[in-house]
């Protein structure tokens, strides 16, 4: 998949309200409210309607979430691209 990295604004910033990384990938570890983790393509219970993490600063937020930061190769240029990339990685 071709990824456009010509726009610097798109190269290293999380798109607020995107939320794809909290829906598309499976998470196998404990999540508050989802003790067995979550399957792929399932909204995390801690994701608000505005697609923001409700427990962002909570110590029980999974380490996989703490460790994941915006990466153009994963997040793509828009939400649809992020979904395709993350689905292909599942
Ligand atoms: S998929 Fe990427 S751009 Fe979207 S919320 Fe997660 S880190 Fe941010
Ligand atoms: S705990 Fe927060 S950051 Fe982790 S998947 Fe759920 S909503 Fe996203």
Task: Give a description of the structure.
By secondary structure, the chain is mainly alpha-helical. The chain has one domain (7-90). Helix content is 22%, strand content 0%. The protein has 3 helices and no strands. The protein is globular, with a radius of gyration of 13 Å. The model is unreliable at 1-10 (pLDDT under 50). Residues 14-15, 18-21, 70, 75, 82 line the site of one iron/sulfur cluster.
Task: Please tag this protein with its features.
binds iron/sulfur cluster; 90 residues; mainly alpha; disordered N terminus
Q: What is the structure about, briefly put?
A:
By secondary structure, the protein is an all-alpha fold.
Categorize the overall geometry: globular
Largest sheet: none
What is the helix fraction of residues, given as a range?
10-25%
User: How many DSSP H or I helices?
Assistant: 3
Radius of gyration (CA) equals 13 Å
Low-pLDDT sequence parts: 1-10
- Decide which structural class fits the backbone: mainly alpha
Query: For the residues shown, what is the average pLDDT?
Result: 90
Q: How large is the share of residues in beta strands?
A: under 5%
Order of helices and strands: HHH
Bound molecules: iron/sulfur cluster
Give the SSE layout.
Layout: H1 63-67, H2 72-75, H3 79-89
This protein binds iron/sulfur cluster (2 copies).
One iron/sulfur cluster is lined by residues 14-15, 18-21, 70, 75, 82.
């Amino acid at each position: 998949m071709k990824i456009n990295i010509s726009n610097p604004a798109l190269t290293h910033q999380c798109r607020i309200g995107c939320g794809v990384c909290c829906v598309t990938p499976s998470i196998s570890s404990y999540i508050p409210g989802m003790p067995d983790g979550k399957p792929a393509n399932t909204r995390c219970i801690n994701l608000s309607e505005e697609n923001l993490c409700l427990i962002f600063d909570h110590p029980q937020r999974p380490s996989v979430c703490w460790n994941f930061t915006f990466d153009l190769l994963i997040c793509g240029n828009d939400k649809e691209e992020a979904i395709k990339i993350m689905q292909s990685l599942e």
